[in-house]
Amino acid sequence: MKKLFFTMVALVVATMSYAQSSQIATLSHEGSISTFYGNSALKEAMTAAHDGDIITLSSGAFNAINITKAVTIRGAGMQTDSITKTFPSIIQGDFTISIPDSVSNTLVLEGIYHSNIIWVSGTLKNAKFIKNRLVSLSYATSETCTMHNLSFIHCKISNGLSLPANSSASCVNCYIQYPYSLDATSSNFEFSNCVIRMVNEDKEWTNVKRKGTDLVKSSSFTNCIIYSTSVFADIYEYTSESYGNPYLHSSNVAYYCIGYGFSKVSRYTNNIFKGITSNNTNTSTSSLLSLFKSWNGGYDDFNTFELTDAAKTKYLGSDGKQVGIYGGSLPFDPLPTNPQITKCNVAAKTTADGKLSVDIQVKAAE
Is residue 52 packed enough to be buried (19+ CB in 10 Å), middle (13-18) or exposed (0-12)? Predict the structure, then answer.
């Protein structure tokens, strides 16, 4: 965690104070800065932006706009921090990412809280999603959409991350709920130090019964914690092997992972790695409470997915560090990489020579 301390003039303090009470979006284009205000500020900045530009958002709620340019959008964070008194940048409403395939710049979305659906249209390549809280990212039309080499780092996704055919994504130190790869061989994930909850809903979905872990194939899991339950009614026990199956599909590979599996169908065991026979580095557990300090399987924004003290030393990954989102070389940290003001102390009066002392603390994740 970086900490920067410096003194600034009173004019900057006044500007910062104004920023706390109004949504602000700044657009950086070839060295020039434009500023937009209010809940439509993101829309106005995006309209004025060019590929490669940077849009920075203050805390507050902004109306969504379709992203048609390969820009960098940096928010103030994905969650409220009561200690540092920092608040999230919220984008309200569904939006579509539709960037021409000919564009060479990369889309970057960082430090955002989004509570709706992000749709991808056409081809999206090399996009980076960093330190965001998202509900769902999916494709608009499976026949015409591809996602190449997407990266998700320190993200929380609560209701679906879906890949169409001929697509790939890497997830590093993330919480992912309900991942889905459309094609058994051409769409795949690479999960590293993630906490993953597999699909377990007993309901119709695009006229196809959800099939537990069968929805993720040809993917890799390393140093992850995988929670897989299948609660389908027993009527499906004798009609299809897929229904009620809590196992990882045999086309996947898994290394140094911890699994928790449960099914109402009596013939299935809780060993979700049963179908993966290529290695013996994975371990199953019969209790989530033996792994996590508070998580019992559901999702809420306040859960940290922190392991118990015993689990931190018992369940180690390939690098000898704890499995899950706080392990590996990039332990989970929700604080954005762009600096955030977390403390501001202003002297009660100016000095004899007319100067006003201001102490500001700025923090950013490394």
Answer: middle
Q: Which residues contact 184 (CB under 8 A, 6 or more apart)?
A: 217, 218, 251
- The reported pLDDT for the residue numbered 295 is 86
Cβ count near 109 (within 10 Å): 24
Q: Confirm whether pTM is higher than 0.85.
A: no
* Contact assessment for residue 324 and residue 195, using Cβ atoms and an 8 Å cutoff: yes
Which DSSP string do the residues of 45-99 spell out, in sequence order?
HHHH--TT-EEEE-SEEEE---B-S--EEE-S-SS-BTTTTB--EEEES-EEE--
The pLDDT assigned to 272 comes to 83
Where do we find the tokens 């048609």?
Answer: 68
Mapped onto helix, strand or coil, the DSSP state of residue 32 is strand
Query: What backbone phi and psi angles, to 5 degrees, belong to 279?
Result: -155, 170
Provide the pLDDT for residue 132. Answer: 97
Q: What gap in Å lies between CA 191 and CA 266, rounded to an integer?
A: 29
User: Residue 24: beta bridge partners?
Assistant: 37
The span from the CA of 20 to the CA of 180, in Å, is: 39
Polymer length of the chain: 366
pLDDT digits (tens, 9 = 90+) for 73-101: 999 999 887 766 678 999 999 999 999 99
For 251-309, how does the pLDDT look when each residue is reduced to its tens digit (9 = 90+)?
899 999 999 876 555 455 567 888 787 678 999 888 888 899 998 788 889 899 999 99
Q: How far apart are CA 305 and CA 284, in angstroms?
A: 18
Question: Hey, which bits of 186-297 come out as E strands?
Answer: 187-192, 195-197, 204-205, 208-209, 220-222, 225-230, 253-255, 258-263, 283-284
Question: What's the rounded Cα separation, in Å, for the pair 209 and 331?
Answer: 36
